[in-house]
Amino acid sequence: MKELLEKISTLAESYRDYTAANLAKLVKIKSLSTGEKAMADELKRQMVEAGFDEVRTDGLGNVIGRIGNGKKILAFDGHIDTVDTGNLANWTGDPFSGEIRDGYVHGRGTVDQKGGPAAFVTAGRILKDLAFDRDLTIYFTGTVIEEDCDGLCWKYIVEEEKIVPDFVVITEPTNLNIYRGHRGRMEISVTFRGISSHGSAPERGKNAIYMASRACLEVEKLNERLRSDDFLGKGSVTVSEFVSGSPSLCAVADYARIHLDRRLTWGETKESAVAEINEIVKGMDAVAEVLQYEETAYTGLRYGMEKYYPTWKIEEGHHLVARAQQAFTGLFGKEPVTDKWTFSTNGVTINGYYKIPCIGFGPGNEVLAHAPNEKVPVSDLVAASAFYAALACNL
């Protein structure tokens, strides 16, 4: 194995410029959720160029590359959509330049999360160079709509494509650490119904804004007493939107709605989270509901799911974690840091719903996700491409 790892490291380093250039091409393509077609076409081109055995696009628009045809299935996942740029005044350069400078690739999506797919394309090329012939099927998935609805893409892959891997590696940024879980999340809407009256006589009506405001203050208190987990940390809840309506600005508001961002730690569920909110609004004319997501993909397919994204983690002693740690140590000569994400990933579906063992390992630091002046070290891309190839061989 030592000799093989040395070959993998040498090949990954020899493809340094190739990997960085591939990422630069991806970054130059703007690819917001549901608008990923050009990005998907370029990733497909790169997979074909790298010699993948099969490259195709599924009905939702996910790019699916394959190497090997064995009984066990390993998948490397990376989403190909990004958030928008935000205020351009906060950027020191063009967010879509893809500039390679000072040891970094610069631009939107370099960290979150086109760097992962660029690295796994190189990993696939390395495996083809090594004439990989293990009893393993490896899928490389460039997935869509993750930023709008994390996990939706894998709902389609599992339920419609009938691809159910034995193991998945999520290539979201981990700062080259091995991650084995993160908190879940859900989106809850609470609608308050009041009764309007003339603003000169508010006592005749029932103000929905007052009801919603009292509920917001209780939500703030709820956040402080939510349960915690030794590994994943504490659950959280915050009001992220407040909307109201009335017949006029001279009338009592008869409508209000708040939107809650709820992060779920281990042991918290959709049912328990909704029950907490129902307790807060008990006695008010209010309805709490978990929201639905449904949009039309760039392929024209309309698809959706409930906005409940379960908490997940796998144990540190799990076979996949152990093999990943072995591959890391063999490649880099040191012990890896094993940790968790702060944000959410496609793992909410892969493991949260379907219980498929998965880990995270990706180039870049997650603190730069969704931030201006996003950039990823080229050295991270090299290390990630070597790790993906080594893990495939070690499984």
Largest sheet: 6 strands, mixed
Number of domains: 2
Portion in beta strands: 25-35%
Shape: elongated
CATH level-1 class of the largest domain = Alpha Beta
Mean model confidence by pLDDT: 97
Helix content: 25-40%
Quaternary structure annotation: single chain
Total DSSP E strands: 22
Distance between the termini: 12 Å
Number of helices: 10
Uncertain parts: none
- CATH architecture label of the largest domain: 3-Layer(aba) Sandwich
What would your notes on this structure say?
The protein has two domains: 2-182 and 311-394, 3-Layer(aba) Sandwich (Aminopeptidase), CATH 3.40.630; 186-296, Alpha-Beta Plaits (2-Layer Sandwich). It is built from ten helices and 22 strands. The mean pLDDT is 97. Helix 1 (2-14) runs antiparallel to helix 10, helix 4 crosses helix 10 (378-394) and helix 8 (319-332) packs across helix 10 (378-394). The protein has a six-stranded mixed β-sheet, covered by helices on one side. Strands 10, 13, 14, 15 and 18 form a five-stranded antiparallel β-sheet that branches. The chain has 395 residues and is of the alpha+beta class. It has helices spanning 2-14, 16-27, 37-49, 110-129, 152-159, 208-224, 270-280, 319-332, 347-350, 378-394, and strands at residues 54-57, 63-67, 72-79, 100-101, 104-106, 136-143, 167-170, 178-179, 181-182, 184-193, 228-229, 233-234, 236-245, 255-264, 286-290, 292-296, 302-306, 308-309, 312-313, 338-339, 358-360, 375-377.
